[in-house]
Amino acid sequence: MNKVATLGLAFLLVFSGCLGLGDDELPNDDDTVEPMGETDLESLEKDMDMLKAKLELLEASIDNATLDCEMDQIPRYDAENDVWVCSDDRTTHPSGHENLNVRWVRDLSGADLSGTNLSGEDLRDADLSGADLTGADLRYSDLRDADLSGADLTGAYLSGADLTSAKLYDVDLTNTNLKYAILDYDPRYRVDLTNAGTSGADLSGMDLKLTILGNMSGADLSGADLRYTDLTNADLRNADLSGADLSGMDLRDMNLSGADLTGADLSGTNLSSAYMAYVDLSYADLTNANLTSTNMRYTEVDHADLTGAIVSYESDTDIDNSYWHQTIWTDGYIYDYPPW
Asked: Are strands 327-328 and 83-87 parallel, antiparallel or unpaired?
């Protein structure tokens, strides 16, 4: 699509929307048209910028639809021949009338993209820092190497998205759906979610190895692989950890109160002095786990396996008012009540 025509169309769409004029709504002599103030112009300019960005995203995806670039190439627009080509130049930042790089078209730092449908988009290397992406649809989008630092992704849909090497510092992931999203766990690109708002986020089924986690209270981490994850400053209260793999982890002094650990793998995990009151450990694997001085009051251990675990009256494990049914004790025998 010709860019001048595209921007012209954008202007007409926004301008007609601001005036509230339809096809059959022309002003007559009785109509009063209020003069546009500075605020109206600022709002119009913002709308124009947003529509321009969205049209460029759409145009880029359409023009680039038939390209099949190599891994070390990126699509660029050849203005002289009005065609998109695969280029080996991944570093040049185009400006003015220079060839247009799709990635740089998507420089949307600080943009308001709330509720925008960007599902399946190629947003590699995109600058989305500080962007408002609340409620945005980013399912299965390619966000490799994207800068999302400081972005607001509250309530956004990121299921299946590829976030390999993405910058996620200070990002707000509250109530965000990250189910089966991809995070690179190469130590060189360790993902730090320490300051990320992830309360209520859906991270179920994710491979979070080597990820640094922060506030995960109420988050859905069911089925997540959390081995080797840094949970030093993590808050896992009321989190859904059902079916999660926490085997061999050091969870000393961890506050897990109210968490759902149904069917979780906690084999060989150090839970000494952990606060696990009101935790559901039904069908959990606690073989060889260290439960010294662990608070397990009102904890449900129905069908849990504690074979070889360090847990006893002498080790100061508190199991007052815990619920037992077909629970496998440390000696391999099944109990329907606490042994002391």
From this structure: unpaired
Amino acid of residue 133: L
Residue that the structure tokens 């001048």 belong to: 4
Domain boundaries, the chain: 1-22+39-63, 66-105
Helices 3-19, 38-63: crossing angle, 10 deg rounding: 140
* Residue 96, amino acid: G
How far is the C-alpha of 273 from the C-alpha of 270, rounded, in Å? 9
Q: Give per-residue pLDDT as tens, 240-298.
A: 999 999 999 999 999 999 999 999 999 999 999 999 999 999 999 999 999 999 999 99
- Edge-first strand order for the sheet with 74-78 is 83-87, 74-78, 100-101
The pTM of this model reads: 0.60
In the 8-state DSSP scheme, what is residue 62? H
Residue recorded with tokens 């600080």: 110
Give strand ranges (E) for the chain.
74-78, 83-87, 100-101, 192-197, 212-215, 327-328, 334-335
Place of tokens 């130049």: 89
Between CA 222 and CA 100 the distance in angstroms is 43
Q: Which residues of 165-199 are buried (b: 16+ CB within 10 A; e: fewer)?
A: bbbbbbbbbbbbbbbbbbbbbeeeeebebbbbbbb
User: 174: which DSSP letter?
Assistant: T
pLDDT on residue 166: 86
Closest by Cα among 301, 283, 100, 72 to 291: 301
CA distance 78 to 22: 37
DSSP H helices in 20-178? 38-63, 102-105
Q: What is the pLDDT of residues 143-163, one digit of tens each?
A: 988 999 889 998 899 988 988
Average pLDDT, integer, range 80-89: 68
Residue (of 90, 81, 80, 84) closest to 64 by Cα position:
84
Percent of the chain at pLDDT > 90 equals 33
Between CA 54 and CA 13 the distance in angstroms is 13
